[in-house]
Specification:
10 strands; 228 residues; 39% helix; globular; alpha+beta; Aminopeptidase
Length: 228
């Protein structure tokens, strides 16, 4: 997946790639992708020291869950930040705007609209049991969501969380998924989550290629999905 973002975003995409390559990342297949967070965060802090002063200042805020403004080569100005219940209308909008194929790959169902209960649960992020980050298009007046990623614990104190993400069709292949995974991973580390699992469909080639590029390995096939 090619990154087309500015220096700060490119830096984090590179750090994320390198960190996951250095980790002994495990993936469990239905698909459950298991991503170890501790090593990534260590590398992120290590390489942050090499960043230019301006990038360094912005990254410091990023690591503290502060919003981060980034410009894409596409001309879009975006805002990367944690999302929550106030963004529920944005979640409704992004799911309506997804193509049927993207909606199916994200939810394993072609239901349209996505049920209100599902939308509410995805917006209901508390930053602890449910961590969520979004990318908003600040070029538009209503700052719609372009992409979002979630890490949700099955149990309140679990060190594992399930990772899920979705990117609108027109914004795919610009590095947004990598940027979101980096954001979620750092927040997970702060909350004591050390392992992320992701479930994908076999036909979701983009997601499967991304997890593989990050060092993930499918260790248990469990049709009809794969677990990294």
């Amino acid at each position: 997946m090619k990154s087309a973002v500015s220096s700060a975003a490119l830096f984090f995409a590179f750090v994320q790639w390198l960190a996951f390559r250095l980790l002994n990342t495990t993936v469990i297949q239905r698909v459950r992708n298991v991503l170890l967070v501790d090593g990534f965060c260590h590398c992120a802090r290590l390489f942050a020291g090499l960043a230019r002063r301006e990038t360094k200042r912005r990254l410091a805020g990023f690591m503290c869950n502060a919003p981060l403004h980034v410009s894409l080569d596409t001309g879009h100005d975006i805002l990367l930040r944690p999302v929550g219940l106030d963004d529920e209308p944005r979640f409704q909008q992004i799911f309506r705007s997804m193509s049927p194929e993207s909606r199916y790959l994200r939810f394993f169902s072609g239901a349209n609209p996505v049920p209100d209960a599902v939308v509410h649960s995805l917006a209901n992020a508390d930053g602890k049991a449910h961590i969520a980050w979004g990318i908003l298009d600040t070029s538009e007046d209503d700052t719609p969501l372009m992409a979002a990623a979630h890490a949700i614990r099955a149990e309140p104190d679990s060190k594992r969380a399930e990772l899920a993400l979705g990117v609108l069709d027109q914004y795919q292949a610009h590095g947004l998924s990598r940027l979101l995974i980096a954001s979620v991973a750092l927040s997970c580390r702060a909350q004591g989550i050390t392992t992320l699992e992701a479930e994908t469909l076999p036909e979701n080639r983009k997601a499967n290629s991304l997890f593989k590029a990050l060092g993930g390995k499918v260790i248990r096939p469990l049709p009809p999905t794969t677990v990294w």
